[in-house]
């Protein structure tokens, strides 16, 4: 059919950005449809955050059981049945994907399958196998996300794979080369290293996890040595040659050519926004940045005023919680509310071992802004709960303004760093001081006490002047 339907809000893409925006817009009283060409939940639920964290949890459990003797448990012959691991991972995904379906249904958002294409500033056409209906809208929210960057020298096929392939291998590879030492490569590389793969990491800059401070990333590097992971930084991957048994990667480091042969190569060198292709943005003359992101104002509005864009297709860190945040803002903005985005407090988390996280300013960043900085740093090895968990690696580093006492930022390396960072995000959002954190009663014995202890260290330094 060629039916046409009038609707308040059309959302394109049902990833974290899209499904959140759709539910929110519906709650604000609009009639809403969402269109998705693949699976509800987008990258995050199907081939991103969730499956990677499921595998990380399994690898962590395996490692803990293998070393349970330290805690007085004898667990002999701990084995990984990877086909069952994959079943577990898939069960986690389906629970969450069906949750998204319920969320949309509960908010009376209609879901349509197919690929959306703009035909005007007020109309999209949806292509699927049966039909190509058109939808007229007052407002549209584009949330088409991103995909892995494919290098010409490492096309995704056979033994060369993106993160998507690495999440659904049917067995633990004997060996794996990871090109790109960003968070996705490090998380997945470490998972397979824990499962017993011989892992080699090739990273272009002079450190893994570029963008994080060295005192955090060096703990991850140290841990990788435990699994005999070979890490080459300042290295350039040049090409690959596949046979039916393996793949050989050529790379250069320090002026020297090297080769490494492995079962698979995982290429994680960044992601590209889905603004090209058949979406039809050129027809609308929508403004894009030179890197292909959609240009938006601080409410998420594009250069076409009734169309908004959120998530990985707009600039900034490609993270699900950034997509959620922009989704809420855009849904409120198109409802006439004065909401705007403010990225001061976006937490960055890497789910490696140890986990690392950061929110607000680092010491280096605060100093670069000319601020008078005070730092309180406190080790996990002095925390009772961490010791009882046999997880004493890492520290909490709290950054404050020495003149005003305001909390400026926090960096954490250690177990549960991903969860611990939330408190300091709230502190910064609320304009809390180091003293506020110190005066908050934290339960004992908990990892939560680490932020309190770091605040006390910083306050102590402030008093000494
Ligand atoms: P997406 O999730 O990419 O969803 C876009 C959707 O739009 C897709 O379902 C797509 O099929 C659909 N679509 C595209 N074009 C069309 C069209 N024309 N018509 C209809 N539908 C269309 N982030 C975190 O915060 N924490 C993590 O731990 C984390 N781990 C990650 C691990 C991996 C391996 C990867 C790859 C990513 C990870 N991310 C993580 C990033 C996170 O997945 C993304 O930031 C997030 O999914 C972006 O959400 P989005 O809504 O912008 O787009």
TrEMBL record:
A GO biological process of this protein is:
2-oxoglutarate metabolic process
Active site at: 444 (proton acceptor)
Q: Tell me which residues bind NAD(+).
A: 180-187, 203, 270
Please give the cofactor(s) recorded in the UniProt entry for this protein.
FAD
Q: What is this protein called?
A: Dihydrolipoyl dehydrogenase
> NAD: is it a keyword of this entry?
yes
InterPro entries for the chain: Class-I_Pyr_Nuc-Dis_Oxidored (IPR050151), FAD/NAD-bd_sf (IPR036188), FAD/NAD-binding_dom (IPR023753), FAD/NAD-linked_Rdtase_dimer_sf (IPR016156), Lipoamide_DH (IPR006258), Pyr_nuc-diS_OxRdtase (IPR001100), Pyr_nucl-diS_OxRdtase_dimer (IPR004099), Pyr_OxRdtase_I_AS (IPR012999)
- In terms of superkingdom, the source organism counts as Bacteria
Disulfide topology: 44-49
List, alphabetically, the PROSITE patterns matched: PYRIDINE_REDOX_1
Q: What is its EC number?
A: 1.8.1.4
- Asked if the keyword Nucleotide-binding belongs to this entry, the reply reads yes
NCBIfam families found in the cross-reference section? lipoamide_DH
């Amino acid at each position: 059919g060629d039916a046409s339907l009038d609707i308040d809000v059309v959302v394109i893409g049902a990833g974290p950005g899209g499904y959140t925006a759709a539910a929110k817009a519906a709650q604000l009283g609009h009639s809403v449809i969402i269109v998705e060409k693949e699976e509800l939940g987008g990258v995050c639920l199907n081939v991103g955050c969730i499956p990677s964290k499921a595998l990380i949890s399994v690898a962590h459990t395996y490692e803990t059981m293998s070393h349970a003797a330290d805690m007085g448990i004898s667990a002999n012959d701990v084995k990984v049945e990877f086909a069952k691991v994959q079943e577990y991972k898939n069960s986690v995904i389906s629970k969450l994907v069906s949750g998204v379906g319920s969320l949309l249904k509960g908010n009376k958002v209609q879901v349509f399958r197919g690929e959306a294409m703009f035909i005007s500033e007020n109309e999209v056409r949806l292509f699927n196998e049966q039909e190509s209906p058109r939808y007229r809208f007052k407002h549209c929210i584009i949330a088409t996300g991103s995909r892995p960057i494919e290098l010409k020298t490492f096309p995704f096929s056979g033994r060369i794979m993106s993160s998507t392939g690495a999440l659904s291998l049917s067995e633990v590879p004997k060996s794996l080369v990871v090109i790109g030492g960003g968070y996705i490569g490090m998380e997945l590389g470490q998972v397979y290293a824990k499962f017993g793969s011989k892992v080699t990491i090739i990273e272009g800059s002079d450190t893994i996890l570029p963008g994080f401070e060295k005192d955090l990333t060096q703990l991850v590097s140290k841990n990788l040595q435990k699994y005999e992971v070979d890490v080459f930084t300042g290295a350039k991957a040049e090409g690959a040659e596949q046979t039916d048994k393996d793949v050989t990667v050529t790379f250069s480091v320090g002026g020297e050519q090297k080769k490494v042969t492995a079962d698979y190569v995982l290429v994680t060198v960044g992601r590209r926004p889905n603004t090209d292709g058949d979406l039809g943005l050129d027809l609308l003359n929508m403004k894009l940045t030179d890197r292909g992101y959609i240009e938006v104002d601080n409410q998420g509005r594009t250069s076409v005023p009734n169309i908004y864009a959120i998530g990985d297709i707009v600039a900034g860190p490609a993270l699900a919680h950034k997509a959620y945040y922009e989704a809420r803002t855009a849904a409120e903005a198109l409802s006439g509310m004065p909401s705007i985005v403010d990225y001061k407090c976006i937490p960055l988390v890497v789910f490696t071992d140890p986990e690392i996280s950061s929110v607000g300013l680092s010491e280096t960043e605060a100093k670069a802004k000319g601020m008078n900085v005070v730092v309180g740093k406190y080790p996990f090895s002095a925390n009772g709960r961490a010791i009882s968990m046999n997880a004493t690696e890492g520290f909490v580093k709290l950054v404050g303004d020495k003149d005003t006492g305001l909390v400026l930022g926090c960096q954490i390396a250690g177990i549960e760093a991903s969860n611990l960072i939330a408190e300091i995000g709230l502190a910064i959002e609320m304009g809390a001081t180091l003293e506020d954190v110190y005066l908050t009663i934290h339960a004992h014995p908990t990892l939560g006490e680490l932020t309190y202890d770091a605040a006390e260290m910083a306050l102590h330094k402030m008093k000494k002047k």
